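ingest -> fold -> write
write: protein_1
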Amino acid sequence: MTQPTPVRRDHLGIALDLAAAAVPVLPLRAGKVPFGNCPACRNNACGGRPNMKTPGPCRCPRTCHGWAAATTDPAVLSGRRWAPVWEEAQAVAYHPGGAELTVVDLDNTDAVTWARQTLPATRMVVTTRGEHWIYRGAMQSVNAVRPGVDIKSTMAYARWLGPGAGAMTALPDVVRALAVKKAPTVCPAARAITVPARVGGGECRHRTPTFLDRGIAMAEQHITEAREAVHATVYRTFLAVLSAHGRCGCLTDTHVARLFAAAQAKGESPRHCTDAWANARTRLGL
């Protein structure tokens, strides 16, 4: 896939140029964040997310699902429902994984220096604080793989800042290896988390592990993208995860550790994570 050089400067025009090159796109509002969920879909109440390889039942036509709203359909992008959103949009984002790409987001000069010494050269895009290194190939998205370095690919979005410079190369093993992180030292201790069975027989509604993994990944992203009220965001995210996944017994310490790690990366202490998790369970009667 060769990224185009958009010839139109308006956000919708850029989005249509990218979509024509098979790059799924979505609008960003002020603060470089996606537009919020509509009431019908807030906190995953709709039961799924559109534009995914294994979509849920949700078919909401609004731009309310973050990265999963990214599309290459010009009829959707320029349609009646999205037109007002583009008028309000402050930037264009794209879903790297949906275009079989991986973005190594280097957030400061130290991270850029590390990349130049460590990673194979590839296409580079200058950002406001560092650089995006773009490789051909998709992988798991992981935040804070090292100081100032995030990996954005599947289930994530990256801001479109232009086509960049240099030849794009294949995703190297050294980048894939960055996603293999040591288990964080967080509470709770490594033991199974037991919760009451769901009301109505306790049947698990998570038809495949992908459903649960998708929910955890989106919760991690929600915490990571918080720009203010981090304490409240962590609690509300824990509450949403437990509300959706806490009554059938599917949650494991691995899932909880991922959420705690995302919260601690935003400056939360292990104790606050534990308290927020306990408070959310108490609120739901788990």
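write: protein_2
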Amino acid sequence: MTAGEQGLDKRWYDDACGTALALELVGERWSLLIIRELMFGGRRFSELRAGLPGISANILTARLERMERVGILHRRRLPPPASVQVYELTPWGHEAEAVLQVLGRWATRSPLHDPTLPLSAASIVMSFRTMYAPDRARREAATIGLRFGTEGFVLAFGPDGFHARRAEPEDCALTIKTNPSPLASVVYGGRPVADAEAAGDLTLTGDRALFDRFVTWFPLPDKVR
């Protein structure tokens, strides 16, 4: 076995192209979505399954083991009192965010793209990272918290773009308590925020005017003709 084959169960393409190797590394079903779920912080096995409800435990186990062997992620045991095992991306694994963004932007140009389908928390945050338009946001500095049930995120916007991480949304100028699909319906579907609030799908705490600006920062690209 050559150094380039270590960690791979098999070669699919017998092709030296980097794109072929990329498909051998993450081309199996669910692999890129596992990377998406880990992009904003470590996740326990049960949390990964919750974010990917269509995956079986056996397939998730196989994908995680293979991605660990090739160096995309690693396992770590959290210190007490948690004392649980989490999966985290390696620094090289984190570099795949650019791949996810390019693929996501390219695919949303298809007429087949349906923004009303279910979303995980990581999925909608990744969509914000992908669609963020700094010129439209005027590179405004702001910290916005998202609360999706038990999951919290902090989005930090500034002149150099914006960063997102899993964290408790504390001391944010604006905190949005919602679920991914209702938030997507407002940001991408044009649903009036008053309608979402009246239905109990969304609660705002803090700077409401900031929310009105926030929802304009993520334009979808034009569809192909």
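write: annotation protein_2
Residues 76 and 86 are 5 Å apart (CA to CA).
The chain is about 35% helix and 20% strand.
pipeline exit 0
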